Amino acid sequence: MNKFTKIVATISDRRCDVEFLRQLYANGMNVVRMNSAHLQEEGFRRIVENVRAVSSSIGILMDTKGPEIRTTVNAGDEDIEFRAGDKVVFSGNPEGETTRGHICLSYPDIAGDLRPGARILIDDGELSFVVEEIRGDELYATAENGGMLGSRKSVNIPGFSIALPSLTERDRRNIGYAIDMDVDFIAHSFVRSADDVRDIQRILDERNSHIKIISKIENQEGIDNFDEILEVSYGIMIARGDLGIEVAAERIPVIQNELIQKCVAAHKPVIVATQMLHSMINNPRPTRAEVSDIANAVTQHADALMLSGETAYGSYPVEAIATMSRVAMEMERALSGSRPTPAMEADTTSFLARQAVASTMVLGTRAILTDSYTGRTARYISSYRASYPTLAICYYPYVVRLLALSYGVVALYQPCMETTRVYLQNALIHLLDGGYLTKDDRIAYLGGSFGEGHGTSFLEINSVEAIMDNFQSYTIPNLEDVVR
What we know:
Blueprint: E1 6-10, H1 18-26, E2 31-35, H2 41-54, E3 59-63, E4 69-70, E5 80-82, E6 87-92, E7 102-105, H3 110-113, E8 119-122, E9 127-135, E10 138-143, E11 147-149, E12 154-156, H4 169-180, E13 185-188, H5 194-206, E14 212-217, H6 220-224, H7 226-232, E15 235-239, H8 240-246, H9 252-265, E16 270-273, H10 288-299, E17 304-307, H11 309-312, H12 317-334, H13 348-362, E18 367-372, H14 376-383, E19 390-394, H15 397-402, E20 409-413, H16 420-433, E21 442-447, E22 458-463, H17 464-469
Parallel strand pairs: 1-2, 1-17, 2-3, 3-13, 6-7, 13-14, 14-15, 15-16, 16-17, 18-19, 18-21, 19-20
Antiparallel strand pairs: 4-12, 5-11, 6-10, 8-9, 8-12, 9-10, 21-22
Helix pairs in contact: 1-2, 5-7, 10-12, 13-14
């Protein structure tokens, strides 16, 4: 394993051929993201099938659109120019056309949720309007700056709670596609509370789906209610684009660090997203600021970093993945021995995982191994950020893909065998054959004595040679497809 920090790459159905995906995978991509705002069922299916053709260990994540507001189509579908001081009327009219004097929004009840003084930001904050007066269903506002307005642009209203439903009909339809196609993660946009997460979980439970929910934090409500959101989520995405519009720019690095530390303490994966290598959409090399941004996220102990336009439609997608991998590896080497230290918990898995990671420093163990039904133990080990890789030997193929988001975890699928001891010995054979270990190395092994659902119950630290000396001959299954 060359790097511990995982990489999520956004993929378009217009550029998702197998050879292209194979290049991204070879350079460090671990999870593919599909943006549902730009895809239909056929596009989702094409991406999923091609990703699975490259490797069964690549995770697949689908975004929802979530509770967002947009402007409507412009009259004539032409851009409209605004100047500072222009007077504009806003109204909630999803079917109306936007003109220079009247901007229609997709949310019908907008006037009921705002008050004079509210700031309406359009197109990622490119245009700003201040509400001066509210008359019935109409908002009378003044433009604070000039700019061009295209059709169907994003709308942010900092400091106000908007009573939008958590899921749109399109979201519900796309979640159905995700279940049918055996996608691994759903990243829910604009999560405001734990109830927004539960709305999706109910749909997944009704279909008995193992898909996990990643909550995207991109507004002030999400920050205010973060603890309750984290509790009901599998993981978190810090989506800095919309968040940077709703929150003062100088606060973003502080918020990012605070949220990452809470995720690490909760043993849940956290993704840092948005414009990490934005200049590489058009240029073959990153800016120094972008390199520092990646380095900062790695230093803060993020599990994963995400690329958006860089890989979806940029001119240098493979170079962007390779650049992110190199920067992450360089920082990981520099941070060797520097680990987060979540508070001690009255939990057996947490305690044993902590001691397994400590053994790499105190006893010189060279790898941590665990067999896994759900991936929980591997995630706990990951949260203590060992300097050596964690090998998770998974009983189910989908768990391999879930662990594609967890820092430092190499996950392999092995069919059920007669004992967990056979699982361990089989894994060691492949680590020896791959040159990851020698027989003189010590390893730490976390296992359970009581089967599925009973959790981790012991930690063994031993030399590879001592474990293999007890090895009884048996036929080793062909794992070439999962060790790529």
